[in-house]
Every structure is written in C-alpha cells, then in structure tokens.
Design brief:
This protein is an alpha/beta fold. It has one domain: Spore Coat Polysaccharide Biosynthesis Protein SpsA, Chain A. The chain is 31% helix and 26% strand. It is built from 7 helices and 13 strands. The strands form 3 sheets. Strands 1, 4, 5, 6, 8, 9, 10, 11 and 12 form a 9-stranded mixed sheet that branches. The protein has a two-stranded antiparallel sheet with strand order 2-3. Strand 9 and strand 10 form a beta hairpin. Helix 3 crosses helix 5 and helix 5 packs across helix 6. The chain is globular, with a radius of gyration of 16 Å.
C-alpha cells in the first residue's frame, strides 16, 4: 500500500495564518497536519508516501526528508489538486490512498480506507453535509457525483478527502484525469474525474465513516476549532 498526500495549495482562505506556512505544516496539538498523517500512515503499515508540494516546497521537503518522497506542482498558484494528482500518477505502483493535506482524523477513519475492497473507494460522512464543501450524491453505496456544485438538498454525504484506489481503479481514473487536463479544467479538484467515471457507469464505492472523528482545515475558524478539540 502507498499513499499520496496532495499538499500543493497555498491555503488562501486561511488569511495568512501562521506566517504563510503551507497549510499542511500548520500545527494542531503540537504536531503539523502532515506530521500527523504521515505518522498514522506509517503506524498502519503504509511505508511509501509521496507528498505533492507546491507552495514553499522547501519547507515540506526539509521537514519530511527520509520519511516521504516528493513530486512538485509548479502550477500550484493557478491550478487545483487535479494537476497535483496527475503529476503523481506515475509514482503510484500499487494500491494507494490519496489524501488531502489539510485533514485531521482518528485512526479508525484511515483504517476504513485501508480496509475498503472496491477498485475506487470514496470516504464519506452523512452527518457533515454543509454548503461550500465537496458533497456526494449516492444511490445506496454507489457514488453518482462529487463536488461543491451539488446542492445541499440533493446531497447524501460529504467527501472526507480520502480516496482508496487499486491499480485497476487508478487505471480507470487516469484517462479521466488526463481528459480533464486536456479540457483545461486545471482549476478543478480531481473529484471532477471521479464524477465523470461515475457518469460513465464505472462503480465508485462510498465508504461511510459517519460518527468517526475527522475535520478539514479550510478556514481560520476550522483551525481554531481544531486546536480547541484535538490534542
């Protein structure tokens, strides 16, 4: 099992929190978001980890030298994580977990991702549906669409920011990622390619982690709340 952590973004919605550090290096409870993810992955047996950098890559590479490998997204200031995942696709050789860098989660959330058995598995939380986030529309356990464009009233869950892919699943996803790139959708999240796959009839399994503790750090209030509630 491998892991790719998408950490290229500037984190502009955090309004320059912590002196302009990359968002993954923001600290909660004495450890950075990236440190927490890397250590949790390693504790569960995921030894090969690739961090896709963008903004201030030297800080991340210096911090994680010897603990991770790196790919760099030089277009981080005018693209989204679709480009970051495309730049990491050739690094992936086996089953992989793809994670956003700005996540906090308890080990059971990662365990659910590692235990998933579909070729493409999307972690979702039915209790966290809210506007402004990547929402998920489902039929049973099958994902039909993912994205911020989905109205709250039509959403069944929220995307947690973790995806697990087998080599076969990645083989299906790659053409959709590249098709989105050719269509100049570089400002999109990679979930646009997952939605395209679902619309073409490829199965995407929802892995429900409702009730398990996790959060995404998008805004200053998210960071403040995380520092109050996570140790």
């Amino acid at each position: 099992m491998q892991a790719v952590i998408l950490a290229a973004g500037v984190g502009s919605r955090l309004d320059g929190a912590e002196g302009g550090l990359p968002k993954g290096l923001l600290e909660v409870g004495g450890a950075s978001l990236l440190d927490r993810q890397v250590e949790q992955l390693r504790a569960l047996g995921v030894e090969r980890i690739c961090i896709v950098t963008g903004y201030r890559p030297e800080l991340v590479e210096r911090r994680f030298a010897g603990r991770a490998e790196f790919r760099h997204n030089p277009f981080f200031d005018r693209s989204n994580n679709l480009v970051s995942l495309v730049l990491a696709r050739d690094w992936i050789e086996e089953d992989v977990v793809v994670a956003y860098a700005d996540l906090l989660y308890e080990p059971s959330v990662l365990e659910a991702a590692l235990a998933a058995r579909g070729d493409i598995n999307l972690l979702v939380d039915r209790s966290a549906v809210a506007p402004g986030h990547a929402l998920v529309r489902m039929a049973g356990h099958a994902v039909q669409a993912i994205g911020r464009h989905i109205p709250v009233e039509r959403a069944d869950a929220r995307f947690v920011g973790l995806t697990r892919l087998t080599p076969r699943g990645l083989g299906r996803l790659r053409p959709e990622l590249e098709r989105a790139m050719r269509a100049a959708h570089v400002d999109q999240y990679y979930t646009v390619a997952l939605t395209a796959l679902a619309e073409r009839g490829h199965p995407i399994e929802a892995v429900d982690v409702t009730g398990q503790r996790w959060c995404e750090i998008d805004l200053p209030e998210d960071l403040d709340r995380a520092r109050r509630t996570w140790s």
